[in-house]
Structure formats: structure tokens, C-alpha cells
Task: structure prediction
Amino acid sequence: MKILLLEDDIALGGTIEDLLIESGYMVDYVIAGNEAIDMSYNYKYDLYIFDINVPDIDGLDVLEALRSADDDTATIFISAMTDLKTVLKGFEVGGDDFVKKPFYPEELLAKVKLKLAREDKTIVFEEITYFTKDERIERNRKSIYLSSIQLKLFKLFISNTNRIIVKDELYECLEKPSDSALRFHISKLKNSTGFEIKNMRGSGYILEKS
Result:
């Protein structure tokens, strides 16, 4: 699961980031609203955690802009602005939950786990539809089945399109890491999914969006 965290308080943001990473989530951490918008256009996330009073564009306007662009990613607001008007505005622009500062980071983590457990995301990529909750994969509306290793590779690629994934990261999906084993499983994955996974010599592999 991948989370975008927007928080301009570096100390608090770093604490939240560390806690989320230790809990097994991938985290991109930004401190300004325009950075959050840029990241959301470049990467697919399972959850947004947005502070409201941040530089450039406040968190409310960030989410409103994303919702207008048909981005339905679940969002938790965190803010010291606890007046009723602000809280209601957070829900009006499409927020799913609101955590009032100050709070214990563990409180936020509990809400994150609950929200992600309830999320049944569908990722569509060319001929492939991936239902994240039950890890079901369809190609042209027909179910396809992958080995456990190929499923790990699939999830890594589908969550990181347009990014070169280095071999060391790919090796973590293999039982007995080697160049030949990696080539074998990527070849099998390409045959099953139709993915055009490119070998970037000396760097790694990439699944590009057309």
C-alpha cells in the first residue's frame, strides 16, 4: 500500500512517515500543496493524508482539485483547525476522515489501517484490471492466474508504472535471486498479462504507460 503524506511540520511529518514505513507502507512525504498535486499526477496512491494549513495550496483545495480530476483516493485530513466550518468543509470536498491535532501518531495509524482494510481498489492498466482487495486479476474480463512470485512482481510493477525498478528491489520477490531467474519470471509475467516490461540495461526494469 502506498500513501502520500502532506504535512509542513517537519518533526511531525517525519514521525508519521517513520511510523507508516515501520508498519509496512510505502510513503511519499511532501510539505507543500503544489508538491502533493504533482505527486498525485505522477503516481497512484492507496491513501492521502493531508494537513490543511500548508504552503502554496491548502490541503482542502488540493483535495478539491483532485476530486474534480476524478481522483477518488481515500483521504484523511489532519489539522489543528478544529472549528466546525473547517471540519465540514473537509468532508464537503471529499475527505473520508478528520484527525484533530494534537494527536498520538498511533491514533492516526489505527485510522490508516482501518481505512485501507476497507478499501477495495481497482487498478486498470491497458488490458488488465487488478482488484487489490482479493488480488484478483482479469485480462479483457477473463481471470488470469499467476504464481506467487509472478504475483509479487505484478504488484510491484502495477504500483510503480513509469518508474525504473532496480534489480535489488525485484530480487526481493524471488525465492532464489539471480539474473536468469528474474528474466524467467518476468518473461512469464509478460506472457500472462501482455505487459511491455522493458529491460533498462544497467538500471533495472520498467513498465511504461503508453
About this structure: The helical segments are 10-22, 33-42, 59-68, 84-92, 105-118, 148-158, 167-171, 179-193. The chain is about 40% helix and 25% strand. Residues 6 and 21 are 15 Å apart (CA to CA). The chain has two domains: 2-118, 122-207.
